[in-house]
Design brief:
alpha+beta; three-stranded antiparallel beta sheet; two-stranded antiparallel ribbon; 15 helices; about 25% helix; about 15% strand; globular
Length: about 500
């Protein structure tokens, strides 16, 4: 690794963005418009348009997350539709007469992107023992031990010293995630099993609710006993809206929100995840995934093709997907690479899928001027929720007409994109790059009130354990413990107003 990589301890540049440097006047405007709200008697200017000028009207149906932004140039709409077709395409095994669609597996979790992100919404845990696990899977790893340091691990060791996060490696015989499906003639890696323990929680006003604590195990392991030190992290599919806008927030703005030593003494000490970019061959700010493990929409998409479907791409050229050295039959299986495409999805295809994922629009807010919603917004700020769920940002000014939907937009995603210690209750005890086993990226809240309509359920958090928004709040711990406790102690009518505000997002 060249010395240039270590010259700046935090990556403040955005090599993926064709950004124009902000003027001093623009910086002042951005600071003014993103300042925390002080008046909760009426909505803030442009609050009803969380996706900026690309915000789309609420269609009232379950397809509201599938739309292009209102400001997408006409010349780009065909690329959006082609990307949508690739996102929804069912992949098949090789060899196939349909050369553009073969290469599935041999081990996989789903046959298409759409199978996990139904209606471009969030996934859910299985509802009963026989329910399919399509929109949820288990990440796997083991401690790295004395394995040689990678370029990223060298960087993090230099940056964090003795406090560097524990390093990991793929599980021998299983890789980085559990693939529970396989082509004919191959053995699936195993089956995710979930058992729930009900935990009663008493709230002010005499109300008691029950929260479910999940316990995970793997049945029918297909490639030998799993090691005793295996690290398991359940993940449901994230909703897809607004990804390009999150990608366009300047890294320096996100890093400015970090307070790893809690210098201001508010108990909140968010810090960035730092990841290795395959595209740019350098350390970048992590933005996407439950632990901010990927830096760009393209790399998040290519990683999903590789791990979830077993499809190779220029960034992940292994046609056998996540198969390990111990899975010899998997490595030697027929694949769809090395035809006219080169990889099983070529760069043209990846560019179209990335364009689609980058340009899924954010729907307009609802009930922004409702008195109960405004009171709930005030409570959201008063309890400290906005300390991590930062309401608003301004994206970078970008060159190129194709980037117009993401360029210099005031957006309201309610996230700082930083890692926070969420306490033992939500800990998965599996590190990911700089993220520890107790840290998670602040989840964006825009669109959360449309989950029931879009996805057909109301389960939340990284593993869907929360069956409603109140349960999701009550699972917060660690840095969010004080905010969580404030919610339990609120008068019932204040809790109802807080939830009403969340449902309006």
């Amino acid at each position: 690794m060249g010395q240039g990589v270590l010259a700046d301890p935090l990556p403040t540049t955005d090599p993926h963005l064709p950004a124009v440097q902000r003027t001093q006047a623009e910086r002042a405007r951005v600071a003014a418009v993103t300042a925390p709200a002080m008046d909760f008697s009426a909505p803030e200017a442009f609050e009803a348009n969380p996706g900026g000028s690309g915000t789309v009207a609420d269609t009232g149906d379950n397809k509201v997350f599938t739309l292009p932004p209102a400001n997408l140039p006409f010349d780009s709409k065909l690329d959006f539709e082609l990307g949508n077709a690739l996102f929804a395409k069912l992949w098949v095994s090789a060899p196939s007469s349909t050369k553009a669609s073969d290469g599935l597996g041999p081990l996989y979790n789903a046959r298409s992107c759409q199978r996990c992100h139904v209606n471009d919404g969030r996934g859910h845990p299985p509802e009963h023992a026989e329910d399919e696990r399509t929109s949820m899977f288990l990440r796997l790893s083991v401690p790295a031990g004395d394995a040689p340091l990678s370029a990223l691990e060298t960087y993090l060791a230099h940056l964090d010293g003795a406090q560097a996060t524990e390093r990991t490696r793929p599980v021998p015989g299983y890789g980085w995630q559990l693939q529970d499906l396989s082509l004919a003639g191959f053995t699936p890696e195993g089956r995710m099993e979930i058992a729930y323990e009900e935990i009663p929680v008493t709230l002010s006003g005499g109300e008691t609710i029950s929260m479910r604590k999940p316990l995970y195990s793997i049945s029918n392991p297909g490639y030998g006993a799993l090691p005793d030190d295996v690290q398991i992290s359940p993940r449901v599919a994230n909703q897809m809206i607004g990804l390009g806008l999150l990608e366009a927030i300047p890294a320096e703005d996100i890093l400015a929100l970090a307070d790893p030593e809690d210098a201001d003494g508010d108990g909140i000490s968010g810090r960035p995840n730092l990841v290795w970019s395959r595209r740019y061959e350098q350390v970048m700010l992590g933005r996407f995934g439950w632990k901010a493990g990927e830096p760009t929409v393209e790399e998040q998409s290519a990683s999903a093709f590789h791990g979830d479907i077993g499809i190779s791409s220029p960034l992940f050229p292994q046609p056998s997907g996540d198969c390990t050295a111990e899975q010899v039959d998997c490595l030697n299986a027929r694949n769809g690479a090395n035809d006219a495409r080169g990889d099983e999805i070529d760069q043209t295809g990846m560019d179209l899928v990335t364009f689609y994922a980058r340009n899924l629009a954010v729907p307009a807010r609802r009930d922004v001027d409702d008195p109960e919603v405004l009171r709930g917004k005030a409570l959201f700020h008063d309890t400290g929720c906005a300390s991590c769920h930062t309401p608003k940002h301004v994206t970078a000014r970008l060159e190129g007409a194709e980037n117009a939907p993401q360029s210099f937009q005031l957006i309201w995603p309610y996230t700082d994109l930083l890692l926070h210690d969420m306490g033992e209750g939500l800990a998965d005890n599996r590190p990911e790059h700089r993220a520890t086993g107790r840290e998670w990226r602040t989840a964006p809240l825009w669109g959360i009130g449309l989950t029931a309509r879009v996805s057909g359920h109301t389960t939340y958090l990284h593993d869907g354990r929360a069956r409603n928004l109140l349960e999701a709040v009550l699972w917060h711990g660690g840095e969010a413990q004080n905010a969580r406790d404030a919610v339990t102690e609120m008068p019932p009518e204040d809790r109802a107003a807080l939830i009403r505000f969340l449902e309006s997002l």
